[in-house]
Design goal:
Strand 4, helix 4 and strand 5 form a beta-alpha-beta unit. This protein has a 7-stranded mixed beta sheet, with helices on both faces. It has helices at 14-30, 45-52, 77-83, 108-115, 133-141; strands at 4-8, 56-61, 64-72, 91-99, 123-129, 145-150, 153-159. The longest helix has 17 residues, at 14-30. It has a single domain, classed as Gcn5-related N-acetyltransferase (GNAT) (Aminopeptidase), CATH 3.40.630.30. It is α+β, with helices and mostly antiparallel strands and 164 residues long.
């Protein structure tokens, strides 16, 4: 982690975050991965709100923007849809983990997963589309437990206080 800096995003970071997410949404569409297609339809007001509330993070290496992710301190509308009434206390919800293409396959995602153990919560939860095999394997390799499926989304969680 010493070569990466993770900080809370500011509104000045909004454009580059949005640009990365749209780039990856186009890439996933081209690869027939049905994820983040809504980002191709226009402004992402939800992301703007997350940034303004200090919930979105920037990952930099030597001052260069290389990744972003959002951590919601409580279940949002989508999380409630995915997880139903199972919304334990002391849980954070990971959304829109995105790494710039030039830094993919360099272990950045794994380092971000390691960094999550430093936050003040016990459990990290996330979901991803079920047919994105590489992403599902990534979360499993990084210690996330498959909890089940809701519609076409796999649900994962990890207890970051004891690693399970």
């Amino acid at each position: 982690m010493s070569d990466l800096q993770i900080r809370v995003a500011t509104t000045d970071d909004s454009e580059q975050i949005q640009s990365l997410l749209i780039t990856l949404a186009h890439w996933m569409k081209d690869e027939n991965i049905n994820q983040w297609r809504f980002l191709l339809e226009g402004e992402d007001d939800e992301l703007k709100q997350w940034i303004s509330k200090g919930l979105t993070y920037i990952v930099e290496k030597d001052g260069t923007f290389i990744a972003t992710f959002t951590l919601l301190p409580e279940a949002g509308e989508w999380d409630q849809h995915i997880w139903g009434d199972d919304l334990p206390e002391n849980t954070v919800y990971l959304h829109r983990l995105a790494i710039t293409p030039d830094f993919m396959r360099h272990g950045i995602g794994g380092k971000i997963m390691e960094w999550l153990s430093t936050i003040e919560k016990e459990i990290v939860r996330l979901d991803c589309v079920a047919d994105n095999a590489k992403l599902n394997q990534f979360y499993q390799r990084n210690g996330f437990e498959f909890i089940g499926r809701t519609e076409d989304h796999c649900k994962y969680q990890k207890n970051i206080r004891n690693g399970s």
